[in-house]
Amino acid sequence: MTSHVLSDTGTLTGRSLKHILRSPDTIITTAVTPIALMLLFVYVLGGAIHTGSDQSYIDYMLPGILLITIASGIAYTSYRLFLDLQGGIFERFQSMPIARSSVLWAHVLTSLVANIVSVAIVVGVAFAMGFRTGASVGAWLAVAGILILFTLSLTWLAVIAGLSAKTVDGASAFSYPLIFLPFISSAFVPTSSMPGPVAWFAEYQPVTSIVNTIRALFNGQPVGSSIWIALAWMVGILVVAYGFAIAIYKKKIS
């Protein structure tokens, strides 16, 4: 049974990836916004922003930019899922001897691959702009693991949106608050520089702990309790989103 699910998921993932290869502009578009933000903040606004540390601003802001890259990319997952649902592909799949869960997992894995490529492009541009890190191989692997977990948790939220949306615009609009959330966190300025209520929200919302953890790993510093808070947020979102997505999917195909 397990091998059947894996085989079906692999086949359907290959189908989704072929669509992306035929239209690589989706990955390029995903990378354009965070790259534009890096250029704006580093070369226009960076000189006026004080982070309270002696590291370059590109080093400080990159963790937040990576999260924005992923938040931008998952909108396409919701969009592609909505089009499949409206196009009747799900109904055709139901008439075939394939595992039903593989349809959703194919979209999730496609999102993961596409976002990894987008993040790699953004990191490459960041290096060209002067980003430097003394992170060890282990620290890089930890960063990669955090970004993968972050992608999976947001992608399952995208699945909920794709299954529930009534219009194409509605399918992708849910990602806008997620893209905006890093701006009210420690991604671009220390939370201590914000007004009281905003600083409280910024300090305790999930993006701040994730950003602080990635920044510490890049800087070769102890991550402290931030990593456990970040993992708790991401795993919690993943479990809840997965549960809701599966429940909505079963209702759709019943």
From TrEMBL:
Keyword set, alphabetical order: Antibiotic resistance, Cell membrane, Membrane, Transmembrane, Transmembrane helix, Transport
Membrane topology: Multi-pass membrane protein
Pfam family, one: ABC2_membrane
Record's keyword annotation contains Membrane: yes
Principal location listed in the UniProt entry: membrane
GO cellular component, one term: ATP-binding cassette (ABC) transporter complex
InterPro entries recorded: ABC2_TM, ABC2_TM_bact-type, ABC_2_transport, Nod_factor_ABC_transporter
Residue ranges occupied by any ABC transmembrane type-2 domain in the UniProt entry: 25-252
Subcellular location(s) per record: Cell membrane; Membrane
Gene Ontology molecular function: ABC-type transporter activity
Transmembrane segments: 27-49, 61-82, 103-131, 137-161, 173-191, 227-249
BP GO annotations: response to antibiotic
Similarity comment: Belongs to the ABC-2 integral membrane protein family.
Protein name from the UniProt record: Transport permease protein
